[in-house]
Specification:
Layout (H helix, E strand, L loop, with lengths): L5 E5 H16 L4 E5 L7 H9 L4 E4 L2 H9 L5 E4 L8 H7 L2 E4 L2 H14 L3 E7 L13 H8 L5 E8 L11 H18 L5 E3 L6 H6 L8 E4 L1 H5 L17 E14 L22 E7 L11 E3 L4 E5 L4 E4 L10 E6 L1 H9 L4 E5 L6 H6 L3 H7 L4 H11 L5
Parallel strand pairs: 1-16, 2-3, 2-9, 3-4, 4-5, 5-6, 6-7, 7-8
Antiparallel strand pairs: 1-10, 10-11, 10-15, 11-14, 12-15, 13-14
Length: about 400
């Protein structure tokens, strides 16, 4: 049995995903910036990205960039959001590039860069409708005009972001508007922009369907690399592994209990008033993790179990026909939100492995474990021994 709770990280599957994505986007002249915030800038994962040919790594926390720099990782480090005024000194010290939307911040970066006797590069983020971060297109020329007068600041790129907040999808129309705008800015100011950063994992469908990516030469990928999917519809990208990360927790209680709480009820510990389906007596199994550790709604059990609910440090399962016992390990796949929270949580152990448990050919053609179990649900004589054999019990 391993150390619990934990995330098992298959470095070889991540390496494979990077190789496929680099080849795919490279065919249209687009380089990848690896977004490592979803793995809390884990240095082993970041190292795999660098070894796989990714030249730039991005994170939204300067403390993570500082951590990677101090781990001696060799890459171009990009702060993925506009800096807070309180962190200007560290941004100039540790980030090679920062994404910016506010002229006051850029002025502060310039003043600090003068003090540190170095040039700090910026990517100006422009608003294309998603309404998270970005300068309105009409205001960009005035900002660039001033930035070009500031010492120790270099405009290295223009970027945009879609889907993350408002759910606005990258389309042929809005991406063409972005490219046309960039082209006009280049012409107006004579800027040799290194990074035209056109978006994130949500841009996959646009990329696959467009005949011309326009000015875009950079894409920021995190979820596509780590979970093998695009983020508009959540579909797995062909030839990618979607199971490079596996969340594992240990059963701490397994008992037959009623399916509906009894007694006078009010709000739970999180201020929620819950409703319950009466299923009679069921086997309720508890694993020793909860909302304090991971986004529970982003977990999906590998076996045909059901998450009934959670508290701060318990997840309650309907074990159904799986004979879970105290000490058994239960494995879950993760959404991006679950990956982000679990990797950030200090109470979750991170275990890196470097082995392919299945060949790429097997991965692309064979049904997943979940689909396999679903396909034999009606065959009860086969189901229980198969399920029980697949419980991750390493005692």
């Amino acid at each position: 049995m391993g150390i619990n709770p934990r995330i098992e990280i298959n470095l070889d599957k991540i390496r494979h995903n990077v190789k496929v994505l680099k080849g795919l986007y490279g065919k249209k002249g687009i380089k990848i910036t690896g977004v490592v915030k979803g793995v809390f800038a884990n240095h082993k994962v970041a190292k795999v990205l660098i070894e796989s040919g990714i030249e730039s790594l991005a994170d939204s926390k300067i403390s993570n960039i500082e951590k990677m720099k101090k781990a001696n990782l060799k890459a171009i480090f990009i702060l993925l959001r506009t800096p807070a005024m309180s962190e200007i000194q560290k941004v100039v010290e540790f980030a090679d590039i920062s994404m910016n939307t506010e002229i006051e911040v850029i002025r502060a970066l310039s003043a600090e860069a003068v003090k540190q006797k170095k040039t700090h590069e910026i990517i100006l983020m422009v608003e294309m409708g998603d309404l998270r971060e970005g300068t309105l297109l009409k205001d960009v020329p005035a900002i660039i005009r001033e930035v070009l007068t500031l010492p120790c600041i270099k405009v290295s790129g223009i970027g945009t972001n879609l889907t993350c907040y408002g759910g606005v999808i990258p389309t042929e129309k809005n991406m063409d508007v972005f490219s046309t705008f960039v082209k006009n800015i280049k012409r107006q100011f004579g800027l040799p922009l290194t990074y035209i950063s056109g978006g994130n994992s949500a841009n996959y469908n646009w990329f696959m369907n467009t005949a011309d990516v326009g000015e875009v030469n950079n894409i920021r990928l995190g979820e596509a690399i780590f979970l093998g999917c695009e983020t508009v519809n959540g579909k797995t990208i062909p030839k990618l592994f979607s199971d490079a990360f596996c969340f594992i927790a240990e059963v701490i209680e397994s008992k037959l209990k009623p399916s509906v709480p009894y007694g006078q009820r009010g709000k739970n510990a999180f201020g929620e008033v819950l409703s319950f389906q009466d299923r009679g007596i069921i086997r309720r199994a508890i694993v020793g993790v909860g909302r304090q550790d991971v986004l529970v709604s982003g977990l999906t059990p590998i076996l045909p179990l059901e998450i009934l609910g959670s508290s701060s440090d318990h997840i309650i399962l309907d074990a159904k026909k799986v004979h879970l016992k105290v000490g058994n390990e239960v494995a879950f796949s993760l959404s991006y939100g679950a990956l982000l929270t679990a990797m950030t949580s200090p109470s979750i152990n991170k275990i890196c492995i470097s082995q392919m448990r299945e060949s790429v050919e097997d991965h692309s053609d064979s049904p997943t474990l979940k689909n396999f179990l679903t396909s034999i649900q009606s065959k009860n004589a086969l189901l229980e021994p198969v399920q029980n054999a697949l419980i991750l019990n390493r005692k």
